[in-house]
Amino acid sequence: MNHSYHGETTKALRHTNPKSMRSRLHTILTFVVSVYWATCVLPTSADNTQANGDNVSMAGLSEPPRPAPVATGQLGGVDVPSANLLKAMHGRPYVLHARGGKLNKVVAEKTLLPHDPAASPQSVYAYLGPDGAIYARLANIMCKSTDGGRSWTQYPAAKSFGKYAMLGNGIPILVGISAVVKDADWMVMSSEDEGRSWQIIANLQHPPGHYGGFCALVSWADDELLALQSLIPQPEKPGAEPTRGGARSLRSSDGGKTWRQTGALLLPWCSEGGIVRTPSGKLLASLRYQPPDRKFKHVALVDSHDNGASWQNFRLLTSEFGQTFSCPVALADGTVVVVHDTRYGPGSPGSRAMISRDEGQTWENEVYYLDHTTFSGSYNTSLALEDGTILTLAASSQAGDSVWIGTTDVVAIRWKPN
């Protein structure tokens, strides 16, 4: 601790009124507790720590993220479209684009995927094969497209939930859980038959006293994988809020068989989202930022220039409470698109897309409205195709916020940002 700063603080406290003193003492105690937690409760871990090791560090990006640069409740200088406008758009071959004070229709191709009665908005995930085939896992079925998402076939798939990536040899990798193994840790699985069945190839334990899931998974080269694993300390008392949480980077160089921790525990209170590699080689993660004080439920961004060994520039992308779940996509010209949900307004729930022209450093004052849903959590997954088309799979329900199992349909939207 800086002793001169501590001395100045102590001196200042002698000349404050009791109410002000309590406020200052609260601030100091909060700081001391956070330092204690970061340096004592969770000991420092060196690089290459095994993924199932006990050592976890809170070093790294321990500060709250920088605020969002623009207000994202209403972008483009246009009022948020009414529910009727969005519902009319939902089934027609266009999306709505707000920019420069105008709301325009942008041509888009839309196709409904086969209906899965067990699907929910949270159960949809897509990945791209090396031959250009697109795979979309719903709940009990896998959907496949060989024409860029214009048409789809389906086949039964093993129940699973998690994050997917495709290795260079065409083998899909899943980090998540399987319905056939109960009370297990999070597992790494591979499939030799396009997701019809899965084989466990590794087990990823949480450090003692933690729980959580996987934020994101990304692959590159032939066998390289990077996962962000969310870690939330178990509360000391039943019903109590956990004291602190974060996400750690795990890397595999052998197709998911073995994993090592590549950096300290970072990104406090971040969970579900995605990772994308930009044309410069930088990794950009968009994640759900939700600390337990309930003041935040936003999309946050963070960059890595060393394949996930360290992360910098932790910042909010969205400004509205309830703009929470997101999926990033990078195009060859440096454009980055983040499709996110808007749960509690302004406007109806649905998927919206924000645009950056410089790999996510600054963001345009414009927005694309992609779908309409009555379920407040409008989950989606998006892929960048070779011709610059973005394929967004939007999971939408029109049955209200309380009933979505059996009422969720997934629409494939082929669109391009102007």
Provide key terms for this protein:
3 helices, 418 residues, six-stranded antiparallel β-sheet, 28 strands, mainly beta, 2 domains, globular
List the helices and strands and how they pair.
Elements: H1 3-13, H2 18-41, E1 49-50, H3 83-90, E2 94-99, E3 102-107, E4 109-112, E5 125-128, E6 134-137, E7 141-145, E8 153-156, E9 160-166, E10 172-178, E11 186-190, E12 199-204, E13 210-211, E14 214-220, E15 224-233, E16 246-252, E17 260-261, E18 270-277, E19 283-289, E20 298-304, E21 312-316, E22 326-330, E23 336-342, E24 350-356, E25 366-369, E26 380-384, E27 390-397, E28 408-415
Antiparallel strand pairs: 1-17, 2-3, 2-25, 4-28, 5-6, 6-7, 7-8, 9-10, 10-11, 11-12, 13-15, 14-15, 15-16, 16-17, 18-19, 19-20, 20-21, 22-23, 23-24, 24-25, 26-27, 27-28
